[in-house]
Amino acid sequence: MKISRILHAGYALESGATQILFDPVFENPFSRNCHAFPDVRFDLARVRDLRPDAIFISHFHDDHCSLDSLDLLDRATPIYLYCLFDELFAMIRELGFVNVRPLAVDVPVRVGGIEVIPRRALEADVDSMFHIRAEGLNVLNVVDAWMDPETLEQLKPFAPWDMVLWPFQTMREVDVIAPSRAERGPVALPEEWPAQLQALAPRYVVPSSCQFRQEPWSWYNHAMFPITYRQFGAAVAAWLPTARVVRLNPSVSVELSADGLTPASPLPWVLPVGEQDVDYEYDPQIVPPATADIARHFAPLTAGQIALVLDFCRHGLLQRYQDMELPEDSYFSTPCVWQLSVYDHDGGVRRFRYQIHGDDIALAGDEAAPTWLTEIPLAKLYAGLALGESLTSMYLRIDGAPADADIVDDPLIRTLFDNGFAAYQAAQLARIKGRTESGSATLGGRGGAS
Questions:
Q1: What Gene3D superfamilies has UniProt attached to this entry (predicted)?
Q2: Which of 329, 350, 404, 450 has the most crowded CB, counting CB atoms within 10 A?
């Protein structure tokens, strides 16, 4: 079995004449500002020539299911997707794919000489894992899921596993959104990992997923990713003395057999750039820059884009908030004043204060001091409204929230994301269709044929 790394959680697996791509992303940056780490480019002409026998997508998150990447592939390619929502299947079909099928937990799918069995992840309503069987070998692709205890019991009888692709990097999303709450000091690996990996007893362990950073200037690069390849490798060596940790950088390929692991020819359409054996540099003492300074890194918006954001702050946010149902134990179930500060490309700020009590919200004056503070760059708020930007790349920051309050109860987070399923893919689809329609119009104007 040939196993090749594409990027992040993306892999190409080959057995005989059969090739399957898992969670393929052919973009850098992807998911708007996830920059490949180590750096890569893609030969898109060669990607367009690919004819994989199937695509398997583990879940709907935009760093695993990108319509811009799928748009490069032949529309006859079968796509198997684990997702509980019909909307994403409809979007992929609207992109032109004619064979889009749902995956079900524990129901095998055979493609040529490869069998893929979706396995239940801890958050079964979101993602899945893949049990891959070929050539008498068992490979577990955990993607970036957390292991479900019942699933682990299912997987134990297959031990020793030939290879496990293990998501080694935990992300500190809440810590960068609310840095005043962040714990200082070194970050330990999750305490359940040793027992889980020992139960699987793999011959080879690949530190998988999370092969990216934010923009080069971003403080997130030293605060979001706390686990190094070096730390993970040393821990696995202690937990599994007979296992071998194998780092697969983008394009790198190996041949896995019952006898061992050997290097194989790299993927020709994934092009490494610069040093590849780079590692994360986590700084537990980092002081985050002011949101005003972060906002200066982004290009100015047009007058129309600014108007859209300001109209949202004055009207749309209030309507969305009132249309939602607030959890009974929310911090905002008791009267409070919330302040939203929006910073433009010059570092200038517009502040909006709101009186909130339960599901009621109204703009307020400056008389009452705010008890919950939210800051965000203007460009990122626009991106969240119009482009499907994800929360982890918006540089949204919360201050003043009590330690026992749930950060995701923040009114801006809720109004942007409570009904935001597949917003990123919807924005991608609109852009792709716009390009296609524009191209067709141009061809028509020139008398060309499509």
A1: Ribonuclease Z/Hydroxyacylglutathione hydrolase-like (3.60.15.10)
A2: 350
